[in-house]
Amino acid sequence: GNYKVQRWDIHKQDFLESAPGLGMFVTVTTPSAEVLLSKLYGPQGTFSFTSYLSGEHVICLQSNSTRFVVFAGSKLRIHLDIRVGEHFLDESVVQAKDKVNEVNFRLEHLIEQIHHIAKEQNYEREREEKFRKTSEETNSNILWWAIVQTLILISIGIWQIKSLRDFFISKKLV
User: Which positions, given as ranges, span the membrane (predicted)?
Assistant: First the structure.
């Protein structure tokens, strides 16, 4: 079971989140009145016991001090969560699970980063391919422009030679 004790604060007119200095004495007895657990805990805690008898067990939570109750106007709030069944809580198993969860979270984060990097690489690859195609088209256009300019210059040169020859023929210089 898990429990938490809250003390009434007269000044705030509300229950305090925790009750410092206040402890709980937990006693568990079997149907045959055998005491299974008798232990003093703090203002919040967890207790567990194993019973080999079936039947109604009695769980008694008792404050270790009455002076807090008197000052608090006789008001205590106890939150109690009882789990029945086999709940073997090995602290090393819980810590191992926490470590596995932490490693799992880091692993998922790394996988997300890998996917992000792969997407960035694909994007850069596509941009490089587009740039290469544009460069090849530009180089091809420049080549054709150079050929067209050369043809224009040759045709103008031929036209000038023909015009000059016709001029010389008309003036009878040749």
Answer: 142-161
Are 7 and 73 in contact, with CB atoms under 8 Å apart? no
Cβ–Cβ contacts within 10 Å for residue 39, how many?
12
Q: What is the CA radius of gyration of the chain?
A: 46
**Residue 68 CB neighbours (<10 A):** 19
Alpha-carbon span 114 to 120, nearest angstrom: 10
The answer to whether 81 and 44 have CB atoms below 8 angstroms apart is: no
Give the whole-angstrom CA distance, residue 60 versus residue 68: 19
Prediction pTM value:
0.44
Contact (CB, 8 A) for 30 and 36: yes
Residues 13, 9: Cα–Cα separation, whole Å: 6
Per-residue pLDDT of the chain (174 residues; tens, 9 = 90+): 888 888 777 777 777 776 667 788 899 998 888 888 888 888 888 888 877 777 888 888 888 765 554 454 567 788 888 877 665 556 666 677 778 888 899 999 999 999 999 999 999 999 999 999 999 999 999 999 999 999 999 999 999 999 999 999 998 877
- Report domain extents, the chain: 2-85, 91-145
* Token digits of residue 69: 């109750």
